[in-house]
Amino acid sequence: MSFFPKIRLRKEVEEYLRSAYHNSELLATLGEEEAEQKFLRLQNHLSHPPAFTTVRVNTRLISVENAKQLLSEEIHKIRRGMLLPNMEDITSISAVICRRSLKQHPVQVIVGAQCGNAVLRGAHVYSAGILSASKWMKVGDEVSVYSDVEARCKRGATEFDGTKVFVGNGISELSRSEIFCSNSPIKGKGIRMTEPVYLSPSFDNVLPGYIFLQGEVIAMDKIANKVEKVKQKASVLKLNSIQAFCYNSTKAVTPDSGDSQGPGPPFPPESFDRVLLDAPCSGMGQRPNMSCALSLKELTSYQPLQRKLFSTAVSLLKPGGTLVYSTCTITLSENEQLVAWALTTFPCLQLHPQDPRIGGDGLMGAGLSPDQLKLLQRFDPSLAELHDFDINDGTLEDQDRTLLANTDTIGFFIAKFVKQG
Ligand SMILES: C[S@@+](CC[C@H](N)C(=O)[O-])C[C@H]1O[C@@H](n2cnc3c(N)ncnc32)[C@H](O)[C@@H]1O
């Protein structure tokens, strides 16, 4: 069931994605109608948030069971929530699903689409995200918040008649004039969300040190800010073994196999046992995403960079080492086609099975064999039903909750290679 309009894409991007979902291999297996249905479902699912939020537990400091207990107490403080059974070091927290019957207030706030998406994942509204507020809005007002999915609303407008999607109710912490008529840019929370349409708990500052949202080791990133964050996080988590460097990873291999200059990059070839390439990508699997402004040129710009980074990763890997390539996108070109290219370009690489295997097979269309497709994990958000019931109302058995958590995810992709000795 679809509550929000399907993701809004530029025509050229929609056609590009559609053609990937109508590739000859898929059409031969599914037929025209089913292929189109699959593509439509995907567009619908992308504009909705996934059912669960998964966090990694720092098992050096706390067991998953204990973290779950503490988390459950924290969530109880915030709002009613439910936890899923554990895996080795992660646990998942469900979003309480779509409360479409919420009463809407006369005082309206319009926020940018990014901000609206964040609200659906548990965020409050920060003043920078507010585009428009009713004329009479004052501190303490109950307000209804809408997402400007078509990016049409003018900053400071008092009314907005364009397409807007209701994302929930909250209390204003700033008046309209404080937001739009201050001399200096105003920062901080603008609306405290009390009734978001999707109840996704936010984990900002919840159990710091014990749990964290995805990403365990990052060796290099070219953005200094990200590297700083990794260092801070590693220090909070007391993980002394993580070293983060601000570096262009396409240049991370020393030109000859001599010693490297110091502890940081560039590194000699074949000096890593394992490499995780969590590649920069078009991010088309992120959910919820009601409107995507990427042009086709931007969407297709990632493949060359991904190939460069992949080539570097292969050079850095020791024979017998493991290379994991991942993206958070749903395009064929950044996923299965990258894998097909890698297997042809680097005969030393073999695809390997992944454990745990939760996602579905790779998408047909890149010339990979059915056996190869089975070694990939594609998390395809359109595989789950969109649900209009409260996940915590007791009707779902544990196994159904687990199935939902494993399928109603953001769209992402994982391939695991081993370099032959
Ligand atoms: C999908 S994100 C990785 C996210 C990371 N795993 C985390 O949890 O924060 C891809 C990252 O690649 C970085 N990046 C893009 N081009 C790069 C390059 N040439 N060298 C190093 N990092 C690069 C981007 O700055 C971005 O942070």
Give me a quick take on this structure.
The protein has helices at residues 11-21, 24-30, 32-46, 64-78, 113-120, 176-180, 224-236, 296-299, 302-316, 336-345, 370-375, 398-407; strands spanning 8-9, 52-57, 90-94, 108-112, 125-126, 130-133, 142-148, 165-172, 189-196, 211-212, 220-221, 245-246, 272-278, 291-292, 317-327, 349-351, 377-379, 412-419.
Task: Describe the model.
The active site is at 328 (nucleophile). Belongs to the class I-like SAM-binding methyltransferase superfamily. RsmB/NOP family. Residues 214-420 form the SAM-dependent MTase RsmB/NOP-type domain. S-adenosyl-L-methionine binds at residues 221, 278. The structure is a single chain. The chain is α+β, with helices and mostly antiparallel strands and 421 residues long. Among the domains are: 108-196, PUA domain (Archaeosine Trna-guanine Transglycosylase, Chain: A, domain 4, Roll); 248-419, Rossmann fold, CATH 3.40.50. Helices cover 28% and strands 21% of the residues. The chain has helices at 11-21, 24-30, 32-46, 64-78, 113-120, 176-180, 224-236, 296-299, 302-316, 336-345, 370-375, 398-407, and strands spanning 8-9, 52-57, 90-94, 108-112, 125-126, 130-133, 142-148, 165-172, 189-196, 211-212, 220-221, 245-246, 272-278, 291-292, 317-327, 349-351, 377-379, 412-419. The strands form 5 sheets. A 6-stranded mixed beta sheet has the order 5-9-8-7-4-6, with helices on one face. Strands 13, 15, 16, 17 and 18 form a 5-stranded mixed beta sheet that branches. It has a 3-stranded antiparallel beta sheet with strand order 3-2-10, covered by helices on one side. The chain is globular, with a radius of gyration of 23 Å. The N and C termini lie far apart (50 Å). Bound molecules: S-adenosylmethionine. The site of S-adenosylmethionine has 13 residues, from strand 11. S-adenosylmethionine binds at residues 214-215, 218, 220-223, 226, 248-250, 278, 280.
